[in-house]
Specification:
2 copies of one chain form a homodimer.
Chain A: H1 5-12, H2 16-24, H3 31-44, H4 50-57, E1 62-67, H5 73-88, E2 92-97, H6 102-112, E3 119-122, E4 141-144, E5 153-157, H7 159-172, E6 178-183, H8 190-206, E7 215-217, H9 223-236, E8 242-245, H10 248-260, E9 270-272, E10 289-292, H11 294-310, E11 318-321, E12 323-326
Chain B binds a DNA duplex (16 and 16 nucleotides) through helix 2 and helix 4.
DNA sequence: TTGAAAGCGATACCAA
DNA sequence: TTGGTATCGCTTTCAA
């Protein structure tokens, strides 16, 4: 059998309460008792039972991180940073994948209510107000990304401004027929809508007429679907001057298609992405992108979450994380 | 306040035990009482407290997955599959990053002993027998990958055979000066040792003399370090006929360096990887690699883990997952 | 500063 | 089939 506080207390000749005091270190304990207790802990190889502690305290020390798909580099980098920052602050992280399925998001919320989780960082895909109902009975929730949600705290990058800046940057290299890859057709992802909006705002500023044929829809934001979407597009349309992909993953799929067709990047067409995933730097050619500090996203999300744990009542807080355009070989003029 | 079993029991006019029976569905319950209880659960919006359940049962329903670095595509794909399979079987997954630091592995084991985790799937990097001491007091552990460990259950791909086959495949395209990228210099990663061994076995079969100058060391297996290592190598050595990178991530870094130097792949040098990460298919050119079913790795790991939970005593079990060479553009002759 | 005892919520034993 | 009750391990009042 595993040792418990009682065993430690008996061995150290003190009460369970004293053992608890030594471990949690809030109530002062005399040096000699502390030593005896620590000795006993070592001898018995005592490890506290976190289920019991969680039951008693109402907190588990675990937060959940819900992402659409861990296998995508973007999600993976976010997860990496959240896990790292959380660990530094003494939290464990449970990973959940929503697969962009609102039902999974619901499921998650109910799981979160079952007290094994003290809070939830949720990166939703679909623009859906209803999926997250932040009620009093729910644990604290922080949303990641461009969700239009008025209730939960949120950390995001200003996608509209970033997409606008990227479009302007592409135009500055002398390219004016700028296509975008990743616009949403049916179900609207918030990011798709906002990035398209930023793109169109830039065109307007530049006095470039809108051309619907330069919007290339792409339902899933993976290299695979992007490659497929771009391939069919190129079969039916002339090559644009520049291609702004709404994620780096899509850009990588696009680069692959262009290369296979012998279309030179950036000579024949410039390509840009969004997210600054690690592999973008090693793409061929290296990928121009919208970069932001993912570590900062993690830090802020965790800060909002922990603050929300102690103050459930105050209003929604939104943290906007800075971005910058990184120009690499894929758009050199 | 949140509702508890007692509240539900009172409302349904039954005892707490009956509520528990309804929820767990092992002990038969009469139809009418079941209905009453289910009604009460809905009305009170009851969600069981998993900490309490965990305390009572000694099981939490959570497993931990420990990986060196979630941000690498390989780890991310493994994590994705484990989370998915685990979810299907009703498990939650806690993610831990070891950063290839043995201390983190220790820390993890002790955390695992604290009963918030029913089992651990560990993907270690460093060949270190001592890091995982599988004793009676520890939760079940399943190791992922090429670790030389005699105690814990393990799921792996036969790296020696795979590296041998890949080397032979490269040789079949008429390339005989085959370099490998990723050999370990100081601390030995098990995978590096085994893959080097397979490579050398193939050369021997082919009657090709060993050439130490074709072993390119690379401490960390990231695109960045691979790019750096290859760049310095090329500054001092002639170009080999083929470059076998021990991971796809390294291969992606290598492709980037080769492209920047105007070295054509596969015309001037063939490049191959290992792992078959999703982006390899969209690399420029698409990457020849050693592929294996990551979903299967996840399934087997979870199977071993759950079986081990009910049978702590039986001997070590090892599952070997099949691989196959996928030839893509990066090695076309 | 330390001890005794109650209780967090769910489950399982033993009766009925 | 169902009800009462002890129990899992820890923390925290309240007293000493």
């Amino acid at each position: 059998m595993r040792a418990t506080v009682k065993d430690v207390a008996r061995r150290a000749g003190v009460s369970p309460k004293t053992v608890s005091n030594v471990m949690n270190g809030v109530v002062p304990v005399s040096g000699s008792t502390r030593l005896k207790v620590e000795q006993a802990i070592l001898e018995l190889d005592y490890v506290p039972n976190l289920s019991a502690r969680g039951l008693r305290n109402g907190r588990s020390g675990v937060i959940a991180l819900a992402l659409p798909d861990l296998a995508t580099p973007y999600s993976a980098e976010i997860a990496h940073n959240v896990v790292e920052v959380a660990h530094e602050q003494g939290w464990s992280v449970q990973i959940e994948e929503t697969g962009s399925d609102p039902r999974r998001e619901y499921e998650l919320m109910s799981r979160a209510r079952s007290n094994l989780i003290d809070g939830l960082i949720l990166n939703p895909v679909v623009l859906d107000e209803s999926a997250v109902k932040v009620g009093v009975s729910l644990p604290p929730v922080v949303l990641l990304g461009e969700v239009s949600q008025q209730l939960a705290d949120r950390v995001w990058v200003d996608s509209v401004a970033a997409a606008r800046d990227m479009t302007l940057a592409l135009a500055r290299t002398g390219r004016h027929r700028i296509a975008v890859l990743g616009t949403a057709e049916g179900r609207h992802s918030a990011a798709a809508v906002l990035r398209t909006r930023g793109y169109q705002a830039a065109l307007e500023e530049l006095g470039i007429d809108r051309d619907e044929s330069l919007l290339i829809p792409c339902e899933k934001w993976t290299p695979q679907t992007a490659a497929g979407a771009l391939a069919s597009y190129l079969d039916a349309h002339p090559l644009p001057d520049a291609l702004f992909c709404f994620t780096d993953s899509m850009a990588i799929g696009a680069l692959s298609v262009l290369w296979k067709r012998g279309i030179k990047v950036p000579d024949d067409v410039a390509v840009a992405g969004f997210d600054d995933i690690a592999d973008g730097q090693y793409a061929v050619p290296s990928l121009t992108t919208v970069s932001f500090d993912k570590r900062r996203v993690a830090t802020e999300a965790l800060r909002l979450l922990t603050e929300r744990m102690t103050d459930r009542a105050s209003g929604q807080r939104v943290v906007t994380v800075d971005y910058r355009i990184i120009e690499r070989d894929s758009t050199r003029s």
